[in-house]
């Protein structure tokens, strides 16, 4: 293999394999891979992909559930100079066809159980579970000895969650992701002695790029799970096989709500990471009360920045549990007004970023790229406040702020007030068109037990200014969420705003 600078995604694994070749790198089901075995598997998988007629720069879709094969497929694309396109395994129909088509994927690595969902004519290669799958071919494939990709080459198209519009493919380079890995390692205190469980979908940038790849970089032993099954997670923690876990608030809420959560021995869990969507402060308070010795980290960011931008460390939670922390190692952030001018501390505005972690723009979307990157800064779309000590607190998404009678209301603040009521299991606050108020503050609530609209409105009024209280409360069985746990408020507005 032609040697280059080594600042590549696959180079992260190569260095760990040389440093600790015999240490277990990944476990999945009944399979385990040492670092040396995983590195060799990636090289052989790179040869398999290039043997399919692909050339450097071609896009390769990946449409599968969590597995060791999924990870090997991603790293093989990186080593072969291909551009990996992770696809939400829950997508079907037009949504699935859009990402495969818009990315121009020449081949899709697919779990056999999902392959028939793909559009007709799309070329596929099974990831696993067949005699001709990627894993099965490793035994006879040669070790890849071609040139290393360059640090500035694209390695992945990370499609945004599409909560407000069609997804956009953030163009990530090797250089951007390697910088993000180092930011994650330093901010999240990752080390070779960690035993993390990776339970969220690997197509999602948080699980893959904030945790799994940085954990491979430091030489940890990584357990890949099919999903965040509560029974399985608690069993693994009690057995001492898992000591750190990342999960969105929805999963932590589910774990905290289990009847056995108060009685299981969870003393072996050392680090708890949360993010991908906003954690309600009342829920975090309950978790910290139950597990006072557990180190909690709030991870915040978005796909376009790799995705980690800020972290609130365990020793920073006291007195600022609604904060998402301060920027990580390679991120420069500030809060600006609609003209791009920085606002004083304590004033709400949009977070903007400069960072080597940032994407190069959006794939084949020059207008959206120009709109997002202005004056050398990336516009995040997140409304936040920065205090005098440099801590950021996200108020809302800019598009989710409610204009009620000419006064702006942040939905997160109202949601936190609702979550402090014992009968609220889940909640989202949106603005719906109203002749009098322009937008009426509307709460969509999943109840836990009996509760009325009047009781919840009064509960909020006791905690916030009366004008922030919901004008209406709608009760539902569940809220629509994407795989990372973010509430799809666009769907709620469409459903109830007609």
Automatic annotation (TrEMBL):
* Gene3D superfamilies assigned: 3.30.300.30, N-terminal domain of ligase-like
Determine if Ligase is one of this entry's keywords: yes
* Keyword terms, alphabetized: Ligase
Q: What positions does the domain AMP-binding enzyme C-terminal occupy? A: 413-486
Please give the InterPro entries that the UniProt record associates with this protein. AMP-bd_C, AMP-bd_C_sf, AMP-dep_synth/lig_dom, ANL_N_sf, ATP-dep_AMP-bd_enzyme
What GO MF terms are annotated?
acid-thiol ligase activity
Q: Boundaries of each AMP-dependent synthetase/ligase domain copy?
A: 13-363
Q: What Pfam families does the database record attribute to this sequence?
A: AMP-binding, AMP-binding_C
Question: NAD as a keyword?
Answer: no
Q: Which family does it belong to?
A: Belongs to the ATP-dependent AMP-binding enzyme family.
Q: What is the protein's name according to its record?
A: Acyl-CoA synthetase
């Amino acid at each position: 293999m032609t040697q280059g600078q080594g600042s590549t995604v696959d180079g992260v694994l190569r260095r760990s394999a040389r440093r600790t070749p015999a240490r277990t790198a990944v476990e999945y089901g009944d399979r385990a891979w040492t670092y040396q075995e995983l590195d060799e598997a990636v090289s052989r998988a790179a040869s398999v992909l290039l043997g399919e007629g692909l050339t450097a720069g071609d896009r390769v879709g990946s449409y599968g559930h969590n597995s060791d094969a999924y990870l090997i497929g991603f790293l093989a694309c990186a080593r072969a100079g291909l551009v990996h396109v992770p696809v939400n395994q829950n997508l079907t129909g037009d949504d699935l066809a859009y990402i495969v088509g818009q990315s121009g994927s020449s081949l899709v690595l697919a779990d056999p159980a999902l392959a028939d969902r793909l559009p007709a004519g799309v070329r596929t290669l099974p990831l696993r579970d067949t005699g001709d799958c990627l894993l099965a071919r490793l035994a006879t494939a040669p070790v890849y000895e071609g040139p290393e990709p360059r640090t500035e080459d694209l390695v992945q198209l990370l499609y945004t969650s599409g909560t407000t519009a069609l997804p956009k493919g953030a163009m990530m380079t090797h250089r951007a992701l390697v910088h993000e890995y180092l930011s994650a390692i330093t901010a999240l205190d990752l080390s070779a002695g960690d035993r993390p469980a990776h339970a969220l979908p690997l197509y999602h940038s948080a699980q893959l790029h904030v945790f799994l790849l940085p954990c491979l970089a430091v030489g940890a032993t990584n357990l890949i799970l099919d999903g965040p099954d509560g029974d399985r997670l608690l069993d693994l923690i009690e057995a001492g096989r898992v000591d750190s876990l990342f999960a969105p608030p929805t999963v932590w809420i589910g774990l905290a709500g289990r009847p056995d959560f108060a009685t299981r021995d969870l003393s072996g869990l050392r680090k708890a990471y949360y993010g991908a969507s906003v954690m309600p402060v009342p829920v975090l308070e309950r978790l910290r009360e139950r597990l006072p010795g557990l180190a909690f980290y709030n991870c915040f960011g978005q796909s376009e920045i790799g995705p980690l931008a800020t972290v609130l460390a365990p020793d920073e939670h006291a007195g600022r549990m609604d904060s998402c922390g301060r920027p990580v190692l390679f991120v420069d952030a500030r809060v600006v007004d609609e003209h791009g001018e920085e606002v004083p501390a304590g004033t709400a505005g949009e977070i903007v970023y400069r960072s080597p972690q940032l994407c190069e723009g959006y794939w084949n979307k020059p207008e959206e790229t120009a709109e997002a990157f202005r004056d050398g800064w990336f516009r995040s779309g997140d409304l936040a406040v920065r205090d005098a000590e440099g801590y950021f607190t996200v108020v809302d998404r800019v598009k989710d702020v409610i204009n009620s009678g000419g006064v702006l209301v942040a939905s997160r603040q109202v949601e936190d007030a609702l979550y402090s009521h014992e009968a609220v299991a889940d909640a989202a606050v949106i603005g719906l068109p109203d002749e009098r108020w322009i937008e009426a503050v509307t709460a969509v609530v999943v109840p836990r037990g009996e509760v009325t609209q009047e009781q919840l409105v009064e509960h909020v009024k006791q905690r916030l200014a009366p004008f922030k209280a919901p004008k209406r409360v709608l009760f539902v069985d569940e809220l629509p969420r994407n795989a990372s746990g973010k509430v799809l408020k666009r769907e709620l507005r469409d459903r109830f705003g007609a």
